[in-house]
Amino acid sequence: MRELFIDNKAIEFIKKALANENAEGARLFISGGGCCKQFELIPVKKALKGDATCERDGIKLYIEKVIFDNTEKINIKYHERNGLLIDLE
């Protein structure tokens, strides 16, 4: 991965979620299986083995190895109706 972008509204949303959960950082990973895979971002106490750690604007983001190794760019935005939107390139 070369680039990580988190918009200001997403930063605010993630910081609130981390504070509410008393979590150190947020983990980005792939969940589900088959044709129903999706990306999730959840508050966590620590990274899992193999996760890459990135920091942006006071947020620690732990990225699952398969995502980190196979993605050039991660965009995380917050939309008032849809919540966090995660786009990988």
Give a verbal description of the structure.
- The mean pLDDT is 94.
- The longest helix is centred in the N-terminal third of the chain and has 14 residues.
- The strands form 2 sheets. This protein has a 4-stranded mixed sheet. Strands 1-6-7 form a 3-stranded mixed sheet.
- It is α/β, with parallel strands linked by helices.
- Strand 6 and strand 7 form a beta hairpin.
- It has one domain: Sandwich (Hypothetical Protein Aq_1857, Chain: A), CATH 2.60.300.12.
- 22% of the residues lie in helices and 46% in strands.
Gist of the model:
The protein has 89 residues and is of the alpha/beta class.
Characteristic key phrases:
89 residues; Hypothetical Protein Aq_1857, Chain: A; alpha/beta
SSE layout and pairing:
Blueprint (H helix, E strand, L loop, with lengths): L2 E4 L1 H14 L3 E7 L6 E7 L7 E5 L2 E5 L1 H6 L2 E7 L3 E6 L1
Parallel strand pairs: 1-6, 2-5
Antiparallel strand pairs: 2-3, 4-5, 6-7
